[in-house]
Amino acid sequence: MGLTNRVIVIAGCTGQVGTAITAALAAQGHEVHGLARFKDPTVRYRMEAAGVTCHTVDLVDPDLTGVPRDVDHLLNFAVTKTGRWDKDLAANADAAGLLMSHCRSARSVLHCSSTAVYAPTGGEPMREDSPLGRDHHQHLMPTYSTAKTAAESVVSFAAREFELPTTIARLCVPYGDDAGWPVFHLLMAQNGQQIPVHVDGSRYNPIHHDDIVAQIPRLLDAASIPATILNWGGDEVVSVKEWTRYMCGIAGAPAPRFEPTELTIPSAVIDTTRSRTILGPCRVGWRDGFRRLTETIVGHG
Asked: Running DSSP on this structure, what letter comes out for residue 142?
């Protein structure tokens, strides 16, 4: 188990999750090629200083010239959420197939999907074979769920067409010591703003960046033809109310105020039976992870 001296292409290397993974793999001594638009030159500078070979690529119309083909692994953490159907389907779905075609000689592919592909269940655990839908993020990101589902279909086809072992991992609420959706809840509470929570309870399986990075080798080992599909989240189910109150207690912030609504992201509780069998248990419990996040954010403030 584990990766040694690999050549790895990471699409979406500047995103919240992609940044953590790219930095970790580069620090482990792999030859890492990061693909992004690199609109901020300081981000590119920091990655290059960390040993990452950076390639400026816009996945809406990708030019992969210069991106190596002979690689060990392709990791796709790219996501585009412009709200324009043509751009978002091209960048999320079409580009996933183009990347896999370009790197078709790889040992394996990890494609990061989302629990947003599932039809909402009102908080009932969703298995890998649960029904899909397009309503999880409609009020906030109208193209997101559909584009993610379309990307999974393209990736599944490419795995078969190119005989390329692949894992599709449906990620649920990633966060780190200084990043993630819960940061916004803490900041809103500190500013006295009402925090929208879905009427179904807004419950999820948050997973810390440390566990995401640690599980990459097992996710790649699980790659198969046809593609392996796994839920990817923490072991514990936590609500937005629960984690926000916990963070406010640590930060000394006022008690948070919540606004029940249907116009926000509904619960995405996942059945982790299959993923725990393959990936093993998570190492960072939610209280430890959210304490670290809170202390970092308060320290920066």
From this structure: T
Integer-rounded Cα Rg, in Å, for the chain is: 19
What the block records as the tokens of 222 is 């699980």
Whether the CB-CB separation of 81 and 190 falls below 8 Å is answered with no
pLDDT at residue 58, rounded to an integer = 97
Residue with tokens 């991106």: 67
As a whole number of angstroms, the distance between CA 147 and CA 90 comes to: 9
DSSP-derived 3-state class of residue 273: helix
Give the residue extent of every domain in the chain. 7-176+207-236+270-283, 181-201+237-267+287-300
pLDDT of residue 135: 60
**What's the first-to-final CA gap in the chain, in angstroms?**
40
Give the closest residue to 140 by CA, choosing from 122, 118, 116, 123: 116
User: In this structure, are strands 203-204 and 238-239 parallel, antiparallel, or unpaired?
Assistant: antiparallel
Class of domain 7-176+207-236+270-283: alpha beta
The answer to whether 44 and 38 are in contact (CB under 8 A) is: yes
pLDDT score of 299: 85
pLDDT in tens, 172-195: 999 999 999 999 999 999 999 999
Q: Is 245 helix (H, G, I), strand (E, B) or coil?
A: helix
| Residue whose token pair is 């919240």 | 16
Place of tokens 């999907």: 113
Examine residue 226 and say whether the peptide bond preceding it is cis (omega within 30 degrees of 0): yes
- Which portions of the chain are predicted below pLDDT 50? none
Angstrom distance (rounded) from CA 56 to CA 49:
16
CA-CA distance, 291 to 6, in Å (whole number)? Answer: 34
